[in-house]
Amino acid sequence: MNQKPLLISMWLFCTLFSSFKAISQTETDSIYSPVTRSYLEAKQIIGFWYSADSINQKVEFVDDGYQLVLNSTNTNPYYFLKDSTGKIYSSGLFPLWHTPGSDLALISKDSLNITFSPFFTPGEPILYVRKKNRK
């Protein structure tokens, strides 16, 4: 019985398997890439925001107890879960399969980027500003 072909086959299998494992752990795909989680203070987001472009679209963040709800006339409501300290996770969702998402990036206390990403398609960030009350 010649064990040399068996040993060579086992060596090739182990080598290829370990190479595949190393590649799969180091390479990333845009859909499955790791997400850096960030949190925002819910108090800073609550209220009305207006798009900075000429459309001047209005969105509203409403405190619903355990979550913030992003209401807009052009999209479905998106939900941002709150933790016990009053912070929200910067990525929200709409309960549907496949889940459309929405990401928030607070630039300053009066400017906010919102990215609507329907069905795993990355959207373009839209700048929203908080307008001062005029008396």
What does this structure look like?
Strand 3 and strand 4 form a beta hairpin. The chain has a domain at 39-129: Lipocalin. The protein has 135 residues and is of the alpha+beta class. It is elongated and about 85 Å long. The strands form two sheets. The protein has an eight-stranded antiparallel β-sheet, with no helix packed on it. The chain has two helices and ten strands; from the N terminus they run αβαβββββββββ. Residues 19-33 have low confidence and may be disordered. It has helices spanning 4-26, 42-45, and strands at 39-41, 47-51, 58-63, 67-72, 78-81, 87-89, 91-93, 101-108, 111-117, 125-129.
Top keywords for this entry?
Lipocalin, 135 residues, alpha+beta, single chain, two-stranded antiparallel ribbon, 2 helices
CATH class of the domain at 39-129: Mainly Beta
Sheet-strand content, in percent, reads 35-45%
The CATH topology annotation of the domain at 39-129 reads as Lipocalin
- Give the quaternary arrangement of the chains: single chain
Q: Give the C-alpha Rg.
A: 23 Å
CATH architectural grouping of the domain at 39-129: Beta Barrel
Mean pLDDT, all residues: 78
Task: Give me the count of strands.
Answer: 10
